[in-house]
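So, who can interpret the following?
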Amino acid sequence: MLKQTFLFLFLTAQVVHAQTKSKVIVTDLTRIKQVGGIELSPDGQQAIYTLTTIEPNPDQKEEYEYKTHIYQTGLKAGDPKALTRGSESARQPTWSPDGQRIAFVRTVKGKGQIFIMSLNGGEAWQLTTSIYGASNPIWSPDGKRIAYSSGVTTTQMLADSLLNPGKNGPAWSLEKPGFATNNFIKIDKKIKANPDGSLAEIRAYLNKDVDDKKAKVITRLNFQGESTTEPEISFTHLYVIDVAEGATPKPLTRGFYSFQAGSWLTNGQGLLAVTDRDSLKHPDREQDNAIVFIPANGAGTRTVVLAEAGKSYGSPEISPDGKQLAFLVSPSEGVNFAQIGLASLSGATVSNSQLVTFDRAAGNLTWTTLPVSGKGKKAVSGYAIYFTASANGGAPLYRLDPATRQVTQLTTFDSGVTAFDVVGDQVVFAKTEIVNPSELYLTNAEAKAQTKLSNHNDWVSQRQLSLPEKRTYKNSLGQTVDYWIMKPAFAEAGKKYPLLLNMHGGPTAMWGPGEASMWHEFQYMCSQGYGVVYANPRGSGGYGLNFQRANIKDWGTGPAEDVLAAATDAAKEAWVDTSRQVITGGSYAGYLTAWIVGHDNRFKAAFAQRGVYDLTTFLGEGNAWRLIPNYFAFPWTPEAKVLDANSPYTFVQNIKTPLLIKHGENDLRTGPIQSEMMYKSLKILGRPVEYVRMPGATHELSRSGNVRQRIDRMLRIYEFFERYVGPDAQGLTQK
């Protein structure tokens, strides 16, 4: 009897505790703080990192601004302190080799510039004043120089005597119809613009129209950016500058090419960087990347380190002793992901290149020297490479032994490591988990014990959260599909609730408890009284290459089978009202939403976000157009019928489910025209459809777009569904 009384009191206390917690509300989006940009000091005793917050815009009511500032921690719980503050963000912090200073980037007059800050006190001072801007600072091994990147347009290249000494055009063709060479770019300033004059004067007039922003002349293949068309190509070049006030930077790279991912050789004589393999091919057409050596004196020419036709090499990372190179490599075309490669390194020459067996998409390769405790001292036991990879619903931290090429998983699938650094056996990382969207942690080389260092999102402890339950399903291909079910946050026994099927895009994205971008959306909908089910159907990343390729030539039928199986199972829960099911998804999942409601009538309402609906149109409209040849075929080939067979628009006449369609006005990743086609066709057919266009919004609306529009998006999901499955719903359906 005493035990029963104690149990009753315990359970009662638990209920009371739960009732004291509040809902996750839509504006909690503005309270989430994201940890990133982590870097440990060279001695491993301190760390710097960035914290991105959402702050009210002081000049515009109801608007918000993203702010990023740099923090420092002595690796003790609760001791992080801000190193930068104010209205201007600071980002990309990096330690000097002696651990006494940091370099970081701050915007000055619209351009990023590199600043230096002493950690012994004093104000940060501006190192660069580049007209092109400066980013991605990398200290030389001796701490006397910094290499950095600058973005330069074609027009700027033509006028820059350092980057383009002859002020000539590129060696590759600009593909101007009717011109055999690139000589047309050389404009004779003596010729006056005259619309009624000679051909030369007419051409001068037309060139002036371009300069005056009255016309855009497009001859390149990849002319669509994220938010606007981009007739001009921009190039990324590497510079080096002495760390001294008033120092003059020196370009390390030149010409109409881009160079990225610089990594210093340990002797300081140069850097490894990534560039196009074929320098005579138009950058929009060249898909192969090479790793090259760039001398630090600025006088030498680049030397190819790793390159092969049909492959893209990237992310060169040099071991602490300078004798080994880690890199990533993948086929340049098709549905693939990069594999880890290892090679011996002597100066800028590699040998014994081998791939590591690991069937996930690795990233953030980071070398460390592993110590072993001795008698009063530490001796080197070898090297290790730490990295992360999306896998099975999370983003675990992994460790690779370069000697044996064996990979060890260090953290679990139910959390996501979003940033990390390692020095010796000290690992500092940012983690997303079910109970907290982002915090900083300290652990050891094995990641066995974890110490929470920051409290940036502790407000979440006052919210009632829904905990996802993982389940699996065996699909028609014999593959195991992971999915998760989340109950309404305040579910009461005996009551019934609507069920939301929420789907991810990509199609190679992956969701799970460790995926950061959906933390708020899932919890918000659960707080609003919805159950949520989400799955990783065939074609998702995080489950190996065969699983990722399982939706080639099948974006609709197969993936729909997988997500609907998850929804069917979730609908068996006692708390689900099976007559009140709704569905949504964005990007590829906007496609899948439209596909499903064209083939299945179980859902009371649907919300298709920034989707692709007609694959042939998508080839011309979106900057992600290479998905078409990679997954299907070009429209002019004999296999082109597969495009119509896989297009939701082909089945538009079958859609009777009330549908809300949303697209960003400046979204050129998927393009808004198809959403207009879908809306107009459904309107002609007399179906219940509503269309929302977000002015100025790009494809990144749900992740990093205008905050007010992100809030608007969430509220529209909820409000539209409430029309059909809420307590005041009229139960309207289309006959």
